[in-house]
Structure formats: structure tokens, C-alpha cells
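Quick question: who can interpret this fold?

. . .
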Amino acid sequence: MGSQIFDVQWNDTPAGKPVLSKAEIIDYCRHFGQDTKELHEFLSRFDFDEWVCMELFVDYVYGKVDKSGEVGSDAIQYLNIVAGNFFTEEAELALKNYIGFDKKKFDYQYDRSPSFVTFPDCPLWIVQVTGKQKQSSSGIFFMPAIFWKDARMTDESYADEYFGIKDPYNKWYRESFGKNRDQSQYWRNRIGSYSPNFISREVGTGIAFDHHDVHVDSPKNRLMILNSRKDEMEYYDLSNPQTKLLAHNFLKECYNGFIENTDNGYRFYQEARIFETDKDFNAISDRAAKIANIFEDGFWKVIVDKKGILMTKKETGEEKRFKFSDLIMSSYSNDPDSLSIFANWKHSVIFFGSNLSVIDSSFNVMNTAFEKTFKKEIQPYMCGYAQKKRALSLSPDRHLLFTSYGVFELGADEQPKMITEHLRAITGEVLFYNAIKDNELKGIWYVAGNDRLVFTDENLEKGYVFNFTEQDISQEHYNTFRWSNIFFDKDGDLWYSLFDGKLHKIIRNELTSAMKTAIPYSVK
């Protein structure tokens, strides 16, 4: 039985002309941040000099692979649609000759897959999934021009007979729209839009932190790497990042330890002790204490320990202890890397981790479970996604929260609002991992998408997307986790990390000059 497709439209010149050489494809994909080893390997795998690049819009009524009628967004599903509905007999024969008449099915390979892995022998690369609903999909892709020769739409398709998946019970199609981890992962990696803007990282100044937590002492212009397995702690003067410095590791064998800056030095919090040192890491004091997290300002002192949360008003001494269950928090992973604690202009304390809790100055608690509260707003492509929780305070009454469900803004009313789709509307991106406010440029820098840098104004009205001049997002942990850091050093240079366990530096002059010529994102 054939696939019936209606409202099929295509624009075969998103790259500016219908037929591209391999070099032109690479140049085009650079504007999506995809000039990677995987792209070069894909192009070298096929002995074709000319490729056709197009955007295809499909409303899919019935498919043999997916009996619910839901259309996929992967390369093989697009090949099914294209081959079965546009190919002439000559073009279809050319494809069958290529894959071999005795090899009718493709295999999925997803164990520890890198970012843009393609399927063995499938000569189609999806650059961007421009839209996806249950029964419709659109995407930009390219394939050998010989398979598009004199293409025309046919009445029905038997494409699934020849170009479908090898295993009819493959997990890729077993679950429904927005519920399949692999589908959503493939989809997320191809959402970012075309951007004409590029920005350069400084060569030779990267700092490898091997995916450990890092701590920044801004006044000292110093970065410390928290590696509990080493006898000595590595740290760097950010003015001279090529030189690795060593100090005694007060957090050895302490996997949830953290560092707090003091006026004259540091406090190193172990699971059962606190070591205080000067700025040269000379020990000053050592005392027993079981503290998992701490926050202190002029109004509050907040301590998180094994029993729960103890909050004390510094002026009156009034205190109250909360159980973890009072704040829909777990009793583990409450260190600063997993749980952010900060206060707003009303002296309410915000606890931001897997969920959100706000305790006002009268000790009243307001809890928000992101997944439950925003169930209807969380987009299907976020299925199976995980990232570290990060928070950015733009002002005492305005904060951005970066979660595995999207980005939220917490305003003066202390009610979180999801802004992911608004950010997508002004930038074309949907994955935002971390951000920092840039007072000089009066805006916000984000680590986003597939290793991209995004800038918006403070009011989130206009966005600019930057590809890096040097691109390679191939990383074995790409689809597992992303280690996002972003901060400024004393000179105003930007440091960030995402995939490769390495902090990259972008100098202030590069940030300023890039913004002077940048073109804001706009929908075509």
C-alpha cells in the first residue's frame, strides 16, 4: 500500500541555487554551525560532485512505517517521502542501484551517537527541521542531484518498500509524537536557523576543565577547577590562561564540595568540614560542619544541610527550619551546582533546582513543579532532554531560569513564566543553556543551540545569532549532557564552554566589533 501525501511543496533553492558542489554545501552549512568532521565525512562517503539542496513541506496522511500517520523528521523518512513522491523511474533506479537491490533497508545506529550522525548508506543530510507537527513536517536537506533528475510528483508511493527502516519494531517509531527520546533528540539538533553572523574565539587560550565544576573569583581574575580525584587543585590566572597553577586540594574525595569567596580568601566546604584559607590557599581554620549549600546577604542567612533548610533573619535572629519535602526538594544533590539560592527585591529567597520554591520574608512557601505546572507549554522536542539548571539575575526583580523544560522568567510577581517560544521567535533557537548580562553592550549573551553564541537586548525584543569561525561539535557525549559555563573576566573578555570540556575565550574587542556588523535574526 502506498503513502498518500497532499499539500507537498518544495523550494529547491534555499542555498541560493538548486545544484551545489560539496564546497558550496560546506559553505552553506557553516551558517548553521555545521561545518564539522561529520559533515565532511558524510560528503566524502559518496562519490557525487553535484548535490541538490531544497526545503520540503509535507502533510502526511498515511504511512506504512508509522500507522498513526505521524511523519518522522529523520533522513530516512524524508528519503521515503522524496523518493516515493518525486522521483522519476530513472532517479529511483539510480538510488536502487546505489544501495543495491539486495539491500532494501537502512539501519539505525544510535549508541553514543555524535551530533549529526547520519544513517549508513543514506545519501541525505537534514540541515534543519523547519517545522514539525504530528502529521506534517518541513525541513531543509540535500542529496545527490542524480537522485533528483527531472523530478516530478507521482500519484502514490511505494517508497517504504525500498527505503524504510530495517526493523519494523524499531524504537524510533514505536512511541508517539513527542514521546520518543531518539526522535526528539534528532529533532532538537536540527532546529537552529540560518545565521549570517560569525564570531571568533581566541586561539591558544582555551582552558581544559575535563567536565568538572569550576569556580570563578572575579576580583582576583582566577578560575579554579573542582576535581575531587586529584591531590592538587588546578587553577588559572585568567590574564595568563596558558599557565596551569597548582594548590593543595581541600576538596579531594569530596564529590559535592564547593568553594565560597570571602573578603580575604576562600571557604572550602566538604561534606563534614569547612576549611578557610587566604587568597594564596594557606590554611587559616578548619572546623566540623555538615553544610550542603549556603546563601547569605544583608537580610538572610540560609543553610542547607542533611536535615533540610535553616533560614535566619540576620536583623532579628528569627529563624525557621524547613523539611526538603516542604520545598519539593530531594535530600541529595543540593550543592550549588545543582541548587541555586538567591534573593529578590522583596527579600524573598528563591530555591531553584529541579523545581522552584520561593519563601517570602514571612516564611510563606510557594512551590512550582515545572513539569506539572507547564505541561501544556513544554514543547515535544524537549522529550528526554537534560541540562544543568542555571540562573541569571538581570535585576533584583527579574531573573532567567534555564531548565530541561525550557527557559523561564521570574519577575516581580514571583510567578515563573515560560519564555522559550518567545526566545525562539527572536533568535530561531530553542536550546538555551546559560547566559550572562553584558552591561557595556546593554544586553545578554547566551550559550545556545549547537555551539552557538546568541545576543539579545535586555527587553528580549531583538536577537542576534553567531556561528563560530571554527566549528566542530563532534563529541561522544554530545547527546548526553552539555557542560555550560559563561562568565566575564576582569578585562571584560567572555569565557564559555559547552561540549568539549574546554573553556573558550572571546576577547572584548571581538564581541564589540561583531555586534557592530551583526544582522538580527528574522524569519524568511
Q: What stands out?
A: The longest strand covers residues 51-60. The chain has a mean pLDDT of 89. The two ends are 37 Å apart (CA to CA).
